[in-house]
């Protein structure tokens, strides 16, 4: 009673834990392909580069918006030069010129001079120039985002196709291994029949030859599987992740969701390129408008040169002796830029027309691809429904032939042909299932949304 009382809860705990383990492992196996796609999307270097390009485009928008803020430049300079200049030599920079008396005579004596300044420049009104630059940057950001989405879609499709090829090759290797086991079983059976005098000795020799050939075919199938696995691992962008076989790929599905073509990243990218070209044209046209700048400056000047000429101490120029302030505005009109800019506008008009034509071609191409993908998916689904019947019929025929061979009613060639038909049916079934998933993948690709493919894995 005590042992029964102790073992019963432990048995329940053990059974519950075992059941939970099975559920977890089953869930992990079911999400194998989806998990690998997520890892590949996060880790693949090309997609990381696209994400960084989008961030750069976002930074460009912030930069163009910051143009509204005034600029303030500070400078300080110290020179050691002759005093034949009006007030001593200036270095090019941000210090406004300061006039002064000419020197009385030509002299090659050296003195010090110094200057410091603050120079502010602000353009609060740009007559639409700033807004056009910001708009161009926004369309550039949208283009970068759509190109990133397109790169993600293309990579996910490329990775999934590689995984489906690997799945088909691995399944082929398993089918080859299974066929090899059949030959091994038949070889052992033929030895027994030959030893009992029910079959000629040549049957064993032929089965041995077929068994060796099946081993070679199995090795070749494993080699093909490993090659496709290497492609999958390269596209995964992760070397440590274990890549298994998703059991969900062995089943059929009935897709019912149709994604609108308007959301395809390729079409969105094309439209953003057209809008960006139009924004560039607006930016060119507005570049001919006047520039209005508000200026403000405060500067100090130090010079050892005296009013009447000459100097006392050269180092007197290191201290400031004059201070100045000033404000003002400036209007500049690019008078002679109209002709050159008009040629750039003509060039931009051609680029806009080219972008519109490309957009139209993309739309027509996607419409055609979607029609083909829909037909391919329908036919692939019909073939997938027939594949299990094909394998079942071939397996039933093989089992009947094997029973007749065991009873001595047929010869070896008929049994071998039945086994070959079964192996062919299994291989064709794998190809049909792989083509079914590829057709679904193709339809998701031309629809512009991988969720249409992934939701059928759930």
TrEMBL record:
<protein>
    <submittedName>
        <fullName>Outer membrane protein TolC</fullName>
    </submittedName>
</protein>
<keyword id="KW-0812">Transmembrane</keyword>
<keyword id="KW-0472">Membrane</keyword>
<keyword id="KW-0998">Cell outer membrane</keyword>
<dbReference type="GO" id="GO:1990281">
    <property type="term" value="C:efflux pump complex"/>
</dbReference>
<dbReference type="InterPro" id="IPR003423">
    <property type="entry name" value="OMP_efflux"/>
</dbReference>
<keyword id="KW-1134">Transmembrane beta strand</keyword>
<dbReference type="GO" id="GO:0009279">
    <property type="term" value="C:cell outer membrane"/>
</dbReference>
<comment type="similarity">
    <text>Belongs to the outer membrane factor (OMF) (TC 1.B.17) family.</text>
</comment>
<dbReference type="GO" id="GO:0015562">
    <property type="term" value="F:efflux transmembrane transporter activity"/>
</dbReference>
<dbReference type="Pfam" id="PF02321">
    <property type="entry name" value="OEP"/>
</dbReference>
<dbReference type="InterPro" id="IPR051906">
    <property type="entry name" value="TolC-like"/>
</dbReference>
<dbReference type="GO" id="GO:0015288">
    <property type="term" value="F:porin activity"/>
</dbReference>
<keyword id="KW-0813">Transport</keyword>
């Amino acid at each position: 009673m005590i042992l029964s009382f102790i073992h019963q809860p432990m048995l329940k705990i053990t059974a519950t834990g075992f059941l939970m383990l099975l559920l977890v492992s089953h869930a992990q196996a079911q999400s194998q392909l989806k998990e690998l796609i997520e890892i590949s999307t996060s880790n693949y270097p090309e997609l990381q580069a696209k994400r960084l390009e989008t961030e750069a485009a976002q930074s460009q928008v912030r930069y163009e918006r910051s143009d509204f803020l005034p600029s303030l430049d500070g400078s300080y300079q110290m020179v050691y030069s002759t005093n034949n200049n009006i007030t001593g030599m200036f270095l090019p920079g941000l210090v406004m010129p300061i006039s002064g008396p000419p020197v009385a005579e030509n002299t090659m004596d050296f003195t010090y001079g110094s200057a410091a300044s603050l120079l502010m420049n602000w353009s609060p009104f740009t007559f639409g120039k700033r807004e056009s630059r910001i708009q161009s940057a926004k369309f550039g950001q949208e283009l970068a985002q759509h190109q990133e989405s397109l790169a993600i879609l293309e990579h996910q499709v490329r990775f999934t196709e590689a995984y489906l090829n690997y799945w088909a090759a691995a399944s082929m290797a398993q089918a080859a291994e299974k066929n090899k086991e059949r030959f091994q079983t038949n070889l052992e059976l033929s030895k027994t029949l030959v030893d009992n005098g029910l079959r000629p000795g040549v049957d064993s020799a032929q089965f041995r030859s077929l068994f060796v050939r099946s081993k070679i075919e199995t090795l070749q199938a494993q080699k093909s599987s490993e090659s496709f696995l290497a492609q999958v691992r390269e596209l995964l962008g992760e070397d440590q992740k274990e890549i298994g076989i998703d059991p969900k790929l062995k089943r059929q599905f009935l897709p019912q969701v149709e994604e609108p073509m308007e959301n395809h990243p390729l079409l969105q990218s094309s439209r953003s390129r057209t809008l960006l070209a139009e924004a560039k044209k607006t930016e060119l046209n507005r570049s001919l408008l006047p520039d209005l700048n508000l200026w403000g400056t405060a500067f100090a000047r130090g010079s050892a040169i005296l009013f009447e000429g000459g100097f006392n101490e050269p180092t007197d120029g290191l201290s400031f002796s004059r201070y100045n302030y000033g404000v003002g505005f400036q209007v500049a009109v690019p008078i002679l830029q109209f002709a050159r800019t008009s040629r750039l506008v003509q060039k931009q008009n051609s680029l806009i027309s080219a972008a519109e034509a490309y957009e139209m071609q993309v739309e027509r191409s996607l419409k055609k691809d979607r029609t083909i993908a829909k037909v391919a998916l329908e036919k692939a689904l019909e073939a997938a429904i027939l594949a299990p019947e094909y394998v079942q019929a071939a397996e039933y025929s093989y089992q009947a032939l094997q029973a007749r061979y065991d009873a001595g009613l047929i010869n070896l060639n008929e049994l071998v042909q039945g086994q070959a038909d079964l192996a062919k049916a299994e291989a064709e079934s794998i190809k049909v299932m792989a083509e079914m998933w590829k057709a679904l993948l193709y339809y998701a690709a031309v629809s512009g949304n991988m969720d249409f493919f992934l939701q059928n894995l759930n």
